[in-house]
Amino acid sequence: MYAVYFGGFLIIFVLEKMGMSGSHPSPYGNFIPDVLVAAVIGVVSGWCIGPLIPIVGQHLARQSIMQLLLHVGILSLAVSSQFFPYSTEAPKRVVFQHTIWNADSSQILSSSYDFATTDSNSMLFVFKHAPELTRELHTDTNFSFHSVDKAHPDDWMGIFPVSFLFSTSFKFPAKPEFIMDQYKSFPVLFNHKPQELLSGGYRRIYLEFSLGSTKEVWVSVLNITGPLFRWSFANNKLPAPEKDGDGPPSYICRLSGASSENWTFWLEASSSEKIRIELGVIDQHLTEPQLKLKGLFPEWVDVTAYSSFRSTYLF
């Protein structure tokens, strides 16, 4: 009885962890969670039924019974493979991000709709079952994995480290005109006052951060790379740096929610080398075109939608 309880708990635990592990690279990534779950269920089943085999073994050893079990197993596999894997109770999780790259408070460089999923079936599975969505994106339901533009990992900086759950994300061009109509100004970072030269070759950069006319800000992210020595956040102490592959170490600062006033802060550099700041602002307010796209997803899809304002600065 204890083996049954513990085995059931282990299976549920593995199922939850597989759901939290994110998507895996194609073409074999779709099968990794299924193989792991099947292996755990097989081990637990053998563990629970193993002590009964000596008792019922002589009855199960008949050829007719073995054939029956084999046929039932094959039939179960064939039938279960036809079941749809998602429902409103167990939805597919999709992240829909409208990425806006702005050069200053009033100029848009590019705009795109980015889609990613956190489970093993890629976004192509959703597009296959959502013809109205693909038509709205001006594409075909039969497009291939290689024919769609891929979103760059930097586009997802605003929700770091959630983006580690994505193996592949797709990008579709979006018209920026309606964004200009909705927002009078965009998030921007600028010098608050002239930089101050300190002894030892250090310099202090005074900055001001404006959220522009964003409406429902969830979080703002500053990704800082370069010769950063100190900053005015967190008692002037730098956190442990983040590093992506062979790239330089960077320091990430998150500012939660909106503010009625602009944020002012300073950064201290240890040399004259430029400091690079990547800014990402997540706005949960959805415009009419975004709401329309979100409404075109099937009901078995749980969509997290928002806008991400991105910009880059050198100081």
From TrEMBL:
It holds the Pfam family ERMP1_C. The keyword ATP-binding does not apply. It comes from the Eukaryota. InterPro entries: ERMP1-like_C. Residues 90-313 form the Endoplasmic reticulum metallopeptidase 1-like C-terminal domain. Keywords: Membrane, Transmembrane, Transmembrane helix. The chain crosses the membrane at residues 35-56, 68-86. Belongs to the peptidase M28 family. This is Endoplasmic reticulum metallopeptidase 1-like C-terminal domain-containing protein.
